[in-house]
User: Fold this.
Amino acid sequence: HPNFVYAGTFDFLRRPWIMRSGGPGSGLYKSLDAGKTWVRLTDPVLNNGLPAGPINRVGVSICASNPDIVYAFVPVRKGMLYRTTDGGKHWQLRNASQDINFRPFYFSQVRCDPHNPQKVYAIAGPLLVSVDGGTTFKDAGGGGDNHDLWIDPTDSNRLLNGSDMGFHYSVDGGKTWNYD
Assistant:
């Protein structure tokens, strides 16, 4: 539904003598009216399965093939990747490993394959892929310090990845990467 919007916020402070990553303004929000009003999904009163905080940088991805399925990096000490299958009413922790997002203040990007809601990418240093709804991940190749991933909405075998090494692409779902 085009009026349903999710947004992650990140409250941080970085000065030469201190860095605070994840303050009270960090959270996951949802709007049902194209952004006019928002509900904070990481509110403990909702008791929806999401942690309340302190939360680091949030990343969120709606699955195009089934918009009721949404993945979110909600980095806290006891959690990392969450998934909802009912449009954000209830959330389940899918993966608590810090390995899938080892520097959440810097990365925290997640992408759902537009044709397969069980296939999800973690873009957080390494480029990782899960084919079981975020329960397990494996290396998906790409470059070092991956920051962004575009998945062709018409052919999810076509990937464009942005990393510290530049842009590289795959036409076979990440089995091989081209760097030209």
